[in-house]
Structures are given as structure tokens and as C-alpha cells.
Amino acid sequence: MEDFLIKNYGLITHIVEFMAAVTGLILFKKYYSTAAKFFILFLVYIAICDLISAYTYLVRDNGVLGFLNTTYFQSNHWWSTLYWEVGAVVFYSFYFYKLIKTKLYCTVIKYSGLGFLSFSILYIIVNFEDYFNSFFPEIAVFGAIIILLCVTLYFIEILKSEDILTFYKSLNFYISTAILLWWLIATPLVFYNIYFSSADWDFVVLQDTIYILSNIFMYSIFTFGLIYSKPEYV
Known about the structure:
The protein has ten helices and no strands. It is mostly helical. Helix 4 packs antiparallel against helix 5 (about 75-100), helix 5 runs parallel beside helix 8 (about 135-160) and helix 9 packs antiparallel against helix 10.
């Protein structure tokens, strides 16, 4: 089972991503008048961006993009950092800002999100060379804090409202639960990237297994939530 997951890491990830995105597009009309429409568009964006990140397979072994082999773009660290480590966190800040009704909570999310974006841009500029060949634990941890903040404020607001009675019918509940668990599981792994090499194959297998199981869980929850939930008009 473990060997199957590792050998088909990219394929399985793309399948669950596109499964969630296609489900969202099929049900887009259902959520068109709600904030969830932004989430569906985000799922499409992530599926496309992750597919683009596979360009490195065309760089290896003098492939079609072999001319990139000696450039900054020979690996996709820069792209993953841009669209996921930074882009996804900025989106969720925007999404919860649109979702949450409490003015104080909205203000906290707004300025926290802007602070994260500003920090990320400055950090990348200062560490521009490393941007192309490594991931940044500092950005990952800061991003995880923003996700934790957004989800916590959402749950607090739900607990204070009558929505707690029907939380299991809310797409936003499933989104919040899935991203919270994914970031709590995945974020600590960035501190061990120095061990991600053929010299420590056991760690490579362990990390890839954790990532792929986390991805399957998150996107499956998204898909289930889109199908099962009722639209929330805010």
C-alpha cells in the first residue's frame, strides 16, 4: 500500500484535487449566491497550479524543458511557495474575511492577512536565491498561524450563534476542519526538509506518505462538503 502511494504520489494528488474542483464546478450554481463560489474557484486554481508544478518532469533527463536544467526554474520550489505557501493562505484570509460577520474578527483577519503577505514578499526578496531551491519554514509557520487564527475565529463565531445547531450542514465547517487539520499535520514537516534526500530514503517515504494521506483527506472532505452541505447566504 505504501509503495503504491509513493509511486503514484502525483497522480493520486491530481485526482483528488480535480475531483474536488470538478464537483465544485458541477455544483457552482448551487453556491453561486454565496461566498462558497470563491472557494470553488480556488479549488480550480489549486488544481491547475499543481498541475503546472509538474513541469519539472519535463526538465529532467533532457526533456522538452531540459533547457531549464541550469536555471533558477529547474525545481518548482519557487512555484509551490508562490501559489500554495503564500497564495493559499492569502485566499483563506480573504475567504474568512468575507465569511465572518463580527466586525472585530474581520479587522483582525484583514490586517493579519496583509501582514502575512507583506512579510512573505519581503522575506522572499531578502532570500531571493534560496527562493528557487528551498522552502521557507518561516513562511509556512506564519501561514499556519494565519489559518489557525481564521478557523478559530470562525468556530468562536459559530459557537456564539444559532448556526451551531446546524453546523454539520455547513460547507464552511468542513472547509475549516479540513484546512486546520492539514496545516497542523503538514507544517511541522517543513523543518525536516534537510533530510529529504536519497541518503535518508525512509524519511522521504514517511514524508510523502503523510502528505498524500493528508491531501486525500482534505480534498475528500471538500468534495463531501460540497455535495452534502446547504448553501449559506451571507
